[in-house]
Amino acid sequence: MSDNPVGSPMNQDLANRDSQVDLEKRNFLLATSAVGALGAAAVAVPFVKSMTPSERAKAAGAPVEVDISKIEPGTMLTAEWRGQPVWIINRTDEMTAELAKHNDQLSDPACEVTSQQPNYCKNANRSIKPNVAVIVGICTHLGCSPTAKLQANGDMGESWTGGFFCPCHGSKFDLAGRVFKGSPAPINLVVPPHKYLADNTLLIGVDTEEKA
Prior knowledge:
By secondary structure, this protein is of the alpha+beta class. Helices cover 26% and strands 19% of the residues.
Protein backbone atom coordinates (compact mmCIF):
# COMPACT_ATOMS: atom_id res chain seq x y z
CA MET A 1 0.00 0.00 0.00
CA SER A 2 1.27 3.47 -0.96
CA ASP A 3 2.34 5.78 1.79
CA ASN A 4 0.51 8.64 -0.02
CA PRO A 5 -2.94 7.69 -1.17
CA VAL A 6 -4.21 9.48 -4.28
CA GLY A 7 -6.67 11.53 -2.37
CA SER A 8 -4.26 12.46 0.38
CA PRO A 9 -3.59 16.15 1.16
CA MET A 10 0.05 15.76 0.10
CA ASN A 11 -0.87 14.49 -3.37
CA GLN A 12 -3.48 17.19 -3.75
CA ASP A 13 -0.89 19.80 -2.87
CA LEU A 14 1.53 18.40 -5.44
CA ALA A 15 -1.17 18.44 -8.09
CA ASN A 16 -2.00 22.08 -7.32
CA ARG A 17 1.68 23.03 -7.61
CA ASP A 18 1.96 21.17 -10.95
CA SER A 19 -1.10 23.05 -12.23
CA GLN A 20 0.40 26.34 -11.10
CA VAL A 21 3.67 25.54 -12.92
CA ASP A 22 1.75 24.64 -16.09
CA LEU A 23 -0.24 27.88 -15.86
CA GLU A 24 2.95 29.94 -15.43
CA LYS A 25 4.55 28.20 -18.42
CA ARG A 26 1.50 28.88 -20.55
CA ASN A 27 1.42 32.56 -19.52
CA PHE A 28 5.14 32.86 -20.29
CA LEU A 29 4.64 31.37 -23.77
CA LEU A 30 1.68 33.67 -24.45
CA ALA A 31 3.66 36.71 -23.31
CA THR A 32 6.63 35.69 -25.46
CA SER A 33 4.37 35.25 -28.49
CA ALA A 34 2.77 38.65 -27.91
CA VAL A 35 6.17 40.36 -27.67
CA GLY A 36 7.25 38.62 -30.85
CA ALA A 37 4.10 39.80 -32.64
CA LEU A 38 4.64 43.37 -31.45
CA GLY A 39 8.23 43.24 -32.66
CA ALA A 40 7.09 42.04 -36.07
CA ALA A 41 4.53 44.83 -36.19
CA ALA A 42 7.18 47.39 -35.25
CA VAL A 43 9.32 46.19 -38.13
CA ALA A 44 6.36 46.19 -40.51
CA VAL A 45 5.26 49.79 -39.80
CA PRO A 46 8.27 51.53 -41.42
CA PHE A 47 7.88 49.24 -44.44
CA VAL A 48 4.22 50.14 -44.84
CA LYS A 49 5.00 53.83 -44.38
CA SER A 50 7.69 53.60 -47.04
CA MET A 51 5.01 52.57 -49.52
CA THR A 52 2.84 55.62 -48.89
CA PRO A 53 3.49 58.79 -50.94
CA SER A 54 6.13 61.00 -49.35
CA GLU A 55 5.39 64.62 -48.54
CA ARG A 56 7.83 65.60 -51.26
CA ALA A 57 5.90 63.52 -53.79
CA LYS A 58 2.65 65.12 -52.67
CA ALA A 59 4.20 68.56 -53.01
CA ALA A 60 5.27 67.74 -56.56
CA GLY A 61 1.60 67.42 -57.34
CA ALA A 62 -0.38 66.07 -60.24
CA PRO A 63 -2.06 68.23 -62.90
CA VAL A 64 -5.24 69.91 -61.71
CA GLU A 65 -8.35 70.11 -63.88
CA VAL A 66 -10.55 73.19 -63.38
CA ASP A 67 -13.98 74.06 -64.75
CA ILE A 68 -13.83 77.77 -65.54
CA SER A 69 -17.32 78.07 -66.99
CA LYS A 70 -18.74 79.71 -63.84
CA ILE A 71 -16.13 82.47 -63.48
CA GLU A 72 -18.03 85.66 -64.23
CA PRO A 73 -16.32 88.38 -66.27
CA GLY A 74 -14.33 90.64 -63.98
CA THR A 75 -13.93 87.98 -61.27
CA MET A 76 -11.49 85.23 -60.42
CA LEU A 77 -11.32 81.71 -59.04
CA THR A 78 -8.49 80.27 -56.93
CA ALA A 79 -7.37 76.70 -57.57
CA GLU A 80 -4.56 74.79 -55.85
CA TRP A 81 -1.62 73.19 -57.63
CA ARG A 82 1.53 71.90 -55.94
CA GLY A 83 0.30 73.40 -52.69
CA GLN A 84 0.18 76.87 -54.22
CA PRO A 85 -2.79 79.12 -55.02
CA VAL A 86 -3.37 79.58 -58.74
CA TRP A 87 -5.55 82.50 -59.79
CA ILE A 88 -7.75 82.12 -62.84
CA ILE A 89 -9.01 85.58 -63.80
CA ASN A 90 -11.76 86.12 -66.33
CA ARG A 91 -10.74 89.57 -67.54
CA THR A 92 -13.32 91.74 -69.25
CA ASP A 93 -12.50 93.27 -72.63
CA GLU A 94 -11.93 96.58 -70.84
CA MET A 95 -9.48 94.96 -68.43
CA THR A 96 -7.56 93.36 -71.27
CA ALA A 97 -7.44 96.64 -73.19
CA GLU A 98 -5.86 98.39 -70.18
CA LEU A 99 -2.87 96.04 -70.09
CA ALA A 100 -0.97 97.78 -72.87
CA LYS A 101 -1.62 101.27 -71.48
CA HIS A 102 0.73 101.10 -68.49
CA ASN A 103 3.74 99.26 -69.95
CA ASP A 104 5.93 102.23 -69.10
CA GLN A 105 5.14 101.72 -65.40
CA LEU A 106 6.23 98.07 -65.34
CA SER A 107 9.60 96.48 -64.59
CA ASP A 108 9.27 93.75 -67.22
CA PRO A 109 6.35 94.62 -69.53
CA ALA A 110 7.55 92.37 -72.38
CA CYS A 111 7.99 89.39 -70.05
CA GLU A 112 11.68 89.02 -70.90
CA VAL A 113 12.37 86.91 -67.81
CA THR A 114 11.24 83.75 -69.55
CA SER A 115 11.35 81.57 -66.44
CA GLN A 116 8.25 83.38 -65.17
CA GLN A 117 5.94 82.11 -67.94
CA PRO A 118 5.86 79.46 -70.67
CA ASN A 119 6.77 80.61 -74.16
CA TYR A 120 3.16 80.31 -75.30
CA CYS A 121 2.21 82.95 -72.73
CA LYS A 122 4.94 85.39 -73.66
CA ASN A 123 2.55 87.80 -75.34
CA ALA A 124 0.69 91.05 -74.68
CA ASN A 125 -1.90 89.36 -72.45
CA ARG A 126 0.45 86.81 -70.92
CA SER A 127 -2.11 84.10 -71.57
CA ILE A 128 -3.38 81.53 -74.09
CA LYS A 129 -6.83 83.10 -74.26
CA PRO A 130 -6.78 86.91 -74.23
CA ASN A 131 -9.33 87.24 -71.44
CA VAL A 132 -8.28 84.35 -69.19
CA ALA A 133 -5.19 84.81 -67.03
CA VAL A 134 -3.66 81.91 -65.11
CA ILE A 135 -1.21 83.09 -62.45
CA VAL A 136 0.44 81.60 -59.37
CA GLY A 137 -0.67 83.77 -56.45
CA ILE A 138 2.70 83.93 -54.67
CA CYS A 139 4.60 87.22 -54.48
CA THR A 140 8.06 87.02 -56.03
CA HIS A 141 9.52 89.08 -53.21
CA LEU A 142 9.26 86.94 -50.09
CA GLY A 143 6.46 84.50 -50.88
CA CYS A 144 3.41 86.25 -49.43
CA SER A 145 0.06 85.95 -51.16
CA PRO A 146 -1.08 89.25 -52.73
CA THR A 147 -4.63 90.54 -52.39
CA ALA A 148 -6.86 90.90 -55.44
CA LYS A 149 -7.71 94.50 -56.33
CA LEU A 150 -9.36 93.72 -59.65
CA GLN A 151 -11.24 96.97 -60.14
CA ALA A 152 -10.18 100.62 -60.19
CA ASN A 153 -9.64 101.62 -56.59
CA GLY A 154 -8.99 105.11 -55.24
CA ASP A 155 -7.03 103.70 -52.32
CA MET A 156 -4.52 102.27 -54.82
CA GLY A 157 -4.03 105.57 -56.65
CA GLU A 158 -5.80 107.29 -59.52
CA SER A 159 -3.89 105.35 -62.17
CA TRP A 160 -4.87 101.97 -60.73
CA THR A 161 -7.00 100.01 -63.21
CA GLY A 162 -6.92 96.65 -61.45
CA GLY A 163 -4.44 94.05 -60.36
CA PHE A 164 -2.92 92.67 -57.18
CA PHE A 165 -1.36 94.23 -54.10
CA CYS A 166 0.91 92.40 -51.67
CA PRO A 167 0.13 93.65 -48.14
CA CYS A 168 3.42 92.30 -46.72
CA HIS A 169 5.77 94.79 -48.38
CA GLY A 170 3.69 96.72 -50.90
CA SER A 171 4.46 95.06 -54.23
CA LYS A 172 1.98 95.79 -57.01
CA PHE A 173 1.10 93.67 -60.03
CA ASP A 174 -1.26 94.27 -62.93
CA LEU A 175 -3.98 91.92 -64.18
CA ALA A 176 -1.39 89.94 -66.13
CA GLY A 177 0.74 89.48 -63.01
CA ARG A 178 3.42 91.92 -64.20
CA VAL A 179 5.19 93.84 -61.46
CA PHE A 180 5.13 97.63 -61.22
CA LYS A 181 8.35 99.59 -60.93
CA GLY A 182 9.29 100.54 -57.38
CA SER A 183 7.90 97.30 -55.95
CA PRO A 184 10.07 95.15 -53.69
CA ALA A 185 9.22 92.18 -55.92
CA PRO A 186 11.97 91.93 -58.55
CA ILE A 187 10.11 89.97 -61.24
CA ASN A 188 6.63 89.19 -62.53
CA LEU A 189 4.36 86.59 -60.96
CA VAL A 190 4.70 83.07 -62.33
CA VAL A 191 2.38 81.75 -65.03
CA PRO A 192 2.23 77.96 -64.54
CA PRO A 193 2.20 75.46 -67.40
CA HIS A 194 -1.38 74.88 -68.52
CA LYS A 195 -3.56 73.87 -71.43
CA TYR A 196 -7.24 73.70 -72.37
CA LEU A 197 -8.90 70.29 -72.60
CA ALA A 198 -12.08 72.00 -73.79
CA ASP A 199 -13.30 75.58 -74.11
CA ASN A 200 -14.11 75.81 -70.39
CA THR A 201 -11.87 73.07 -68.99
CA LEU A 202 -8.40 74.10 -67.90
CA LEU A 203 -5.60 71.68 -66.98
CA ILE A 204 -2.94 73.25 -64.76
CA GLY A 205 0.45 71.55 -64.64
CA VAL A 206 0.75 70.42 -68.27
CA ASP A 207 2.19 72.47 -71.09
CA THR A 208 0.09 73.24 -74.13
CA GLU A 209 1.25 72.72 -77.70
CA GLU A 210 -0.39 75.95 -78.77
CA LYS A 211 1.87 78.76 -79.87
CA ALA A 212 1.37 82.33 -78.78
